[in-house]
């Protein structure tokens, strides 16, 4: 039996474009291995416009055409306007895939996209840190009330399955805290500073290599990591933190001398996002540069790679290391959410039939 | 709703004793978090004897009494004889927990325990590499025919969830191979040799620290790793390998000079178990000491810690690092199998009711 999921893509930048490419390449494999196929019925993008196509859009056309500004207008069901809320409401999608830009203060427009999708009876999967850091609990509750899913594996460490590892494979292990290298740009810069560059030169290299944005503030001041710490602390430690409640500093104050001093001892400076449950039950979270001893499992994590070490009652430290960014890597996170949704939905359908 | 699972413990050494301790400490927590409790109704141990107690055995008595040889005879339903197959058949357990010693050649007596348990309609969870490396596919098929589970998270890396990570959280990522540090003893010895000791001195230290057995052959010649490579290759790459088909060498031929030479370049010798799917579809697997470059994610894994790096089509390399041994750590693997069984069984019960 094959299930077809119709999906709408909000944002057609690198991530959702990569998901569309995967659909062209792997629908048959997913049908064989998992029993589902994906069909795109809606797309919205600030630059390209929007498409509402209940009969399905050929993913090959989407990924292989060089659309200019407003270029979706040329397609059947297309418009030059990015009518994202119309796409959410009117394209008949089972699942809305939110991958627009992250606004760390308001979470908008992604937050409204997620709410509108759930209100319209559609599951939501997202890679967007904004709505997850600001409102994961409310959105999850909203989804549960409607018998829907709100999933966001890609909001932390792209497709490296940090959330699903903690929720499923470490169930019952007693997670009491975590420490993570959650920003590849800053980790790359620290590595280059260890090689002797000063901060400005290392940043230029990161920008040339495509790791750092023209405005690197969110990466090097820790703001990006802070959103991920909030997501992990709220999800894994049952906290209810807002980003503003997490003390946050970055790596800009570190000098080449600070770094050289510790390297000779085998230690390394890392930008660490961490949280832990205190004896009184409170969860304390922070983002700051920390000097890790040579024996810490995160000390060897180099370049743009990310990693999280969970502290558990049963296993001590367990660390997962993998990519923290990348088009295909982040698109895989969306796929992994859809695979999980499919597995749970199949079980749930049987359950409802039994009641 | 609370489900009570009755369990029989085969082998009452460190691991099953730790599971019994967890039962005394955490049954209420499991009831609250997952909806089940565990009750021990059978125990068998070569030294201590056996117990068959349909009404349940107080786990506190089991863990707090200092039983001598044949000491189970003093308990109600007890005997000085280790009648393991009687316990499997006659103790009314939902789940048989196999944690006797590993025989790498025949898998016995564990293999017969597993078969008898499945034939008696009981689920099996095990930490025993022998039956898993030799017969996981047959036992899994046998279990499936009877609507039962055969699970073995603890057969590789104790409770570090390497199997469940690969099966669930990395589903659809396209795993094409893996490399692992799968034996803590040899990794500890290599670390001490990096600090300047020769093999014999490093081995003595490992034995003094409790890492190495009196007969360290299985650890230092790679035989222990070979079983784990077979388990992972068969499970994750769909291979059908027997241990004898895997080329295997250990760390005994490495000299302090071999090790010192590479350390100065930032490289490290590691005992690596690996497998990968070749372009012709065959799976090649091996165990050997490898000189890893400073950039490899396994290079920084020190001491008795274990780790596996999966190579995937979607994410590149993803590495999980954690304990590879330990009483509580391995007992947690059994618990994690029972949690997974409970989650799936709950879904399956609904499914059967629907049909």
UniProtKB/TrEMBL annotation, chains A, B:
Domain Homoserine dehydrogenase catalytic: 161-339
Protein's recorded name: Homoserine dehydrogenase
Active site: 228 (proton donor)
GO BP terms, alphabetized: methionine biosynthetic process; threonine biosynthetic process
One Pfam family recorded for the sequence: NAD_binding_3
Enzyme Commission code(s) on record: 1.1.1.3
Binding site residues for L-homoserine: 213
Gene Ontology terms, MF aspect: homoserine dehydrogenase activity; NADP binding
Annotated positions binding NADPH: 129
Keyword field: Amino-acid biosynthesis, Methionine biosynthesis, NADP, Oxidoreductase, Threonine biosynthesis
Domain of life: Bacteria
Protein family (similarity comment): Belongs to the homoserine dehydrogenase family.
Organism of provenance: Gemmobacter aquaticus
Pathway field: Amino-acid biosynthesis; L-threonine biosynthesis; L-threonine from L-aspartate: step 3/5; Amino-acid biosynthesis; L-methionine biosynthesis via de novo pathway; L-homoserine from L-aspartate: step 3/3
Aspartate/homoserine dehydrogenase NAD-binding domain segment(s): 11-152
